[in-house]
Amino acid sequence: MTSKIVEMHLKVLFDLDNLLADMEEPSYKEIGFAINEKEQSSLVKVRNDLLKKLPQDIAESYEMLKKRYKRAIAPVEKGFCFGCFQKLPTQLLTRSEEITACPNCGRILYWRGK
Q1: Angle at 26 between CA 20 and CA 44, to 5 degrees
Q2: 9 sits in which H/E element
Q3: Which of 33, 71, 104, 106 supports an S-S bond with 28, CB 3.0-4.6 Å?
Q4: pLDDT class for 52, splitting at 50, 70, 90?
Q5: pLDDT tens digits, 70-84
């Protein structure tokens, strides 16, 4: 699996996780924006299927980071990790085609605009 496909899967997984978390917020339920159990279980199934498509080491890392942070992945812009807002080492910035982690916070990085 190419790093671009892995990155795309990670972004979709991240969006699904955020959607599922938002559905649990009381404010969403108050305004009538709720899904039924069948729809929610369907989203959870899609999430789990997507997680299985990732390489095992990346999937495990994602799940570990998700428990630690609200955001398991973070964009890179102008040389900064937008998870911890720290400047990334120059040598890391040349690896924009690889799946890599921030040396400071450990989040999985992706480059915006690619």
Answers
A1: 15
A2: helix 3-23
A3: 33
A4: very high
A5: 899 999 999 999 999
Burial 3-30 (b: 16+ CB within 10 A, else e): eeebbebbeebbebbeeeeeeeeeeeee
Question: Which residues, at least 6 apart from 51, have a Cβ–Cβ distance to it below 8 Å?
Answer: 13, 59, 62, 63
> Which CATH number is 3-111's, of 1.20.120.80, 3.40.30.10, 1.10.287.1490, 1.20.120.1460?
1.10.287.1490
Report helix, strand or coil for 29.
Answer: helix
Residues pairing with 77 in the sheet: 80
Count of beta carbons in the 10 Å neighbourhood of residue 77: 11
Residue-by-residue DSSP string for 51-85: HHHS-HHHHHHHHHHHHH-S-SEEEEETTEETTT-
Residue type, 54: L
Q: What is the pTM of this model?
A: 0.82
DSSP-derived pairing of the beta strands 80-81 and 73-77: antiparallel
